[in-house]
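Thread: quick sanity check before group meeting

JM: Hey all, I'm pulling together slides for Thursday and realized we never actually wrote out the predicted structure for the chain we discussed last week. Dropping the sequence here so it's in one place. If anyone has concerns about the input, flag it before I start.
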Amino acid sequence: MGELGPDEGAENTYSLRPGLQHRFKSSTVKECIHAILKEKLANVQYIPEEMPELTKSLSETIKDRLKEEGFDRYKMVVQVVIGEQRGEGVNMAARCFWDADTDSCAHDVFMNDSLFCVVAAFGCFYY
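JM (edit): ok, ran it. Output follows.
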């Protein structure tokens, strides 16, 4: 009594690929990042002492928002860089070892008169 036979019971939940509705969509992620940056940084002035806390807060906000999008079984990594706007150029790069079929990334740049902010979000599927 109460035991499951060989043909009964829970189905295997192990999957090698995410379903189409749960794939990491770069366009959706970029829209989320853009909306958050526009909301949080529109009138912010660059004050060096405040930037470490702001970068942490932005990365947590973005990561939480991406989790709400329903990318099941994805590990989210969010990198935020804020710098003072001086009219100089900045180059950034990232390298990852991942599965090109399931993993992806998105990025966005925000600038105002005082600062620039570059956000990169990486979604890596858990097998």
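AS: nice. The longest strand covers residues 74-84. The mean pLDDT is 87.
JM: adding both to the slides.
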